[in-house]
Batch of 2 targets.
Target 1
Amino acid sequence: MQTLNNSPFADTIVTPEKPAKLWMPKRVLFTPDALDEPFGQEIYERVSKYNLPVEILKNNRLTGLRGETERETYKLAKSTLAIVNAPPSAFKLRPIPPSADFQFHLAEGCPAHCQYCYLAGSLQGPPAIRVFANLPLILKNTLHYQLPDRITSFEASCYTDPLSIEHLTGSLAETIRFFSSQTGSHLRFVTKFDAVEPLLHIDHNSRSRWRISLNANIISRRLEGGTAPVSARIEALRKLALPRELGGGNYPIGVVLAPIMPVPNWQEEYRLLLDELMQKLDFPTNLTFELITHRFTPGSKEVLSEWYPNTSLEMDESNRAIKRNKFGGSKYVYLPETMKAMKKFFYREINERFPEAEILYWT
Ligand code: SF4
């Protein structure tokens, strides 16, 4: 059983939690095509209310996102919100096992700074936040992918954290409303943010499952820059699940525990997290768990090492097992005995505290 004893987590000094703030970009770009879309105009109005510097581009190509170094490019891109139309390729939906039948995208990119970010190596080019103005077409397109024999699940957060930019876009509210009337579809998304109030009173018909991504405090404070504190996320989850008569959203909810890491005292750290969750969810809920251990690929390690050169994230191939996929790609996961011990621990601890909840998968 490996623990990351050599990692800086061993005697880390955690920073105190800061309250979550709404993210504001340093600049907002609109392409002409995006501004032609009615939904693009709605975003323009929302953004204008915040008095943000808005530029209307001369053509539909995004330029000016690169600095002199990779680090400068990262800083420049991560403070830029670009409103664009999704390209034709966004209308060919791909499966996303084990999370959902298909994935689709409201946006690409995220303003947070998680040092293990799943987007590293998945998205090409500078990591600007691109929001899709042709969202109504993207939503309608999901109807072509409904399976004939069962309710089809659609995951909307593979390439973005949709709540992180919701105050500027309104895309998530639009999407929840759309799915509320689709009897053959089910929406899923996940966030590390907590500004859920404006979305509590939307009619969702229980066709959207909000999931909140959680981790042990020691990991989150160290690696999840720019996100809401874990306690605030748990509070948000409570509000989402509470019945309407108690001021909540009455949504089906989920917890995505990710990325799980065997840091020193990991059992104790994760027990504290599950205890806090149990205290806050002290009423009947429709709750699922998804359990995802940390992994990286050669490509994601390369990108993350450029974005976060001083990271304390352990990405030592010699401590890992290789998992290959059918397309010839490989990823580095924890060693089998570590995986086995962690899986046993999480199933036991979750089942003890949340006997009614379903654990959807461990990976
Ligand atoms: S919240 Fe998700 S998408 Fe955003 S930086 Fe963190 S891992 Fe990446």
Target 2
Amino acid sequence: MHIIRWFFISSIAVASVCGDDAAAPQSGAKTKPAPDPPGITLDWIHVDGPYIALTFDDGPSAKLTPKLLDLLAAHHIKVTFFLIGENVAEHPDVVAREAREGHELANHSWSHPNFGKMSDESVRSQIRRTDDAIRNAARVTPTLLRPPYGSVTARQKKWINQEFGYKIALWDVDPLDWKRPGPNVVCNRIVRNTRAGSIVLVHDIHPGSIEAMPCVLNQLEAKGFKFVTVSELLAMETPVPPKPSASPKAAGAKPPPTLASPNN
Ligand SMILES: [Zn+2]
């Protein structure tokens, strides 16, 4: 019941502010549900084993990200950072440290605009500049893109994948930490909703989100979860077994619907 209610709350949040940041544009309905090109978008991944991926968006923050890195190192945990190009250019040393310590670096645009409402040329520039900044800072070429607010059209997904080779990495667990509900709430929401194969969305630019992390890591570890990067999780993907009671047509169907996945 809790989970169902959470699905509902998350969906509302996504519809109203597009999921991953308070500064999301408020107006305009979500983009029309166009058919998604297969194999490009990730939100939850079917894996055999207790593997999950924590992801941190909108950084790096000069103040908070190093604190997070210290904590992750103490737990021997690798995560994925979805970086804002402007912040990468400002704090390349923090990004270099993220890479050095084994974390995955990924593209979250240059200045956090809404791709779904932009021209191809502007989207291309946002992606390319960030790609270049990450490569300059850490000598790493990202393979994952998370569009700000999860906003991207099916058509954009297709050409972004073809042109840059990026997969579009969304999430299935969203604690709405950008609303700053307090560390305990952030921790409880994550721990309650995370399951094997989850991609968890957090922001390393809010103090309360970082304060929630000791609780999150301790509790998820206590539940037996193992932490990997999104690319590692993707590499572990296994086919979803057919449901015993399903009709033959449903065999081999895609995974069950997941929560809070805009444009999906
Ligand atoms: Zn963001």
